[in-house]
Specification:
This protein has 457 residues and is α/β, with parallel strands linked by helices. The chain folds into 5 domains: 2-53; 61-112, no CATH class; 117-246, no CATH class; 250-345, Thrombin, subunit H (Beta Barrel); 346-457, BRCT domain (Rossmann fold). It has helices at 2-53, 61-70, 76-91, 99-110, 117-245, 368-377, 411-437, 444-451; strands at residues 254-260, 265-268, 281-285, 305-312, 317-324, 335-337, 348-352, 381-383, 392-395, 441-442. The strands form 2 sheets. A 6-stranded antiparallel beta barrel has the order 1-2-5-4-3-6. The protein has a 4-stranded parallel sheet with strand order 8-7-9-10, sandwiched between helices. Helix 2 (61-70) packs across helix 3 (76-91) and helix 3 (76-91) packs parallel to helix 4 (99-110). The longest helix is centred in the middle third of the chain and has 129 residues, at 117-245. The radius of gyration is 62 Å and the shape is elongated. 15% of the residues are buried.
Length: 457
Amino acid sequence: MASKTSGSVGLMITMVIFIALTLTLFVTTMVLFARTQKLTNDLSLKQGELDAAVRSEERDDRWQELQTLAGRGQGVVRYLDTALRQTAEKVTGSRRDNADAVLAAITKAQGDTGLPLLRLLEAREGDIGTLRRQLAGAEEARDAARADLLAGTERVAALEAQHQAAVDRLNAEIETYKTNASGVVSGLDTARADMQSQVERVRGDADSSIAALENEIARLESELLVANDQLKRFRIDQNDQTLRGSFEGALVDGRIIGVNIQNRNVFLDLGRKDRVVLGMTFEVYADGTAIRVDPSSGEYPQGKATIEIVSVDEASSTARIIRESAGTPIIRGDAIANAVYDRNKTYTFTVYGNFDTNADGIATREEAQNIRALIADWNGQVSEDIAGDTDFLVLGVKPALPPQPKPNDPVELIQRYLLLRQAAAKYDELFNTAQATGIPVLNQNRLYTLTGAGARR
């Protein structure tokens, strides 16, 4: 019985101990579980904070370098935050600006240059140094200009003093002249009175003379009207004889005695004995009556052909056809004419004006020499002015007058205007003289038409 009771007590103790141990283990387990759960939550929180600072895939060699740079005294985030605040303070002046604000400030400072910030600062320092040097140069120039201005002011003051002295001297001379002028005026008044009496006396004598002269003028005007009427009738008769009946430019100089159509050559009854020279040209007409001025245009008609002497014998010559009108062939017996040439005499020409012998559309005074040379080559004579032996007047274009210069224009301009005016006046004088004396007037076109020279241009 006692053994059974002792076994039961032992079993109970064992059960109590087991239950106590079980409860202790349960409590311990619950406490450890709670602590483990808290640690797990803390670990998850810390892991989230760590991931927010640096993600797992970003924990590379650079992360290790940053940890090394941060050292043991602070974390990488604190290190980077401190560096950002210091950079922001240096760049924008505010430690509170974030990285975007700092980057925006740097980008704005870079502008369109694209240079790194340090290089940009170095470039700006160089520009500032250049501007400082330019400023120093400008200040030196300003000082020099100020010194020149001061010197100029002093010179102006000296000139003003000289001017005032000259004015004072001139005023003194003017006062002297005024005093002298008063005496002269008094003398002039006396002289004027004497002259007035003389004028009255002369005027009376002049009135008598004027009356006599007016009577003489009336008589002379009457005689002049009669003389002008006679002269007009004489000129009409003379023009009819000179320009229509016996105008030497319209006279036939020779005839065609043969034609070689195949070689485009013709043969003339003029030779070396007739003073024909190589290169001379003639206009070909059916007969001499065709060489007359066209009343509607005032021009001479062009011949039906133009020929040029290419070979000269003693009594005949050969010419080539250099122009021929369609439908009017050259035939034997046709007349030839050249206003410059005459077998029996030497014509004298006066040449004046501007000519366009090179066909460039610009008439010049110098090209008149080409007209003179053409006349001389064909045995004509050239005179500088109209004389008693002048046969033709060859006039070019009248010299054009520019606007009349002002008195204060350059001397060279005034002299050139006077020369041109003199040339234009001589042009009109030659034309009027030729008209009054019945001398035929030819322009360049008429001369070329009558000589055939236009076909060679």
